[in-house]
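anyone seen this seq b4? input:
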Amino acid sequence: QVQLVESGGGLVQAGGSLRLSCAASGQTFSTYAMGWFRQAPGREREFVAAISWSGGTTYYADSVKGRFTISRDNAKNTVYLQMNSLKPEDTAVYYCAQDRARYRVVKLTTRTDYDVWGQGTQVTVSS
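predicted toks r here
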């Protein structure tokens, strides 16, 4: 069973930047699309960004478009989320997730598209 481990969260002032990483175990990372979600206290877990297995296609939530960038390094079994121009409303626990099927080329923006999740990393943006 693949495991996902997020890192890179922390406390940052509004307007600042953070880079999240998600390291995956196993040999098949490069065959799965990956996603980032976030969950703020008292709210549903929501989609943030997704990247295809090859890295050639990306999707973003409207709330982060133009500020966040998802990328992956298949040689390192790692997916990244570069977050710039952070706002207090970006405060949440951020989770990475792996697609439930290999080589899918579809828009994967819902929780049910993914079946492996990391433990999450806290991002706090102060005003």
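The CA atoms of residues 2 and 96 lie 12 Å apart. The radius of gyration is 13 Å. kinda curious what u guys think
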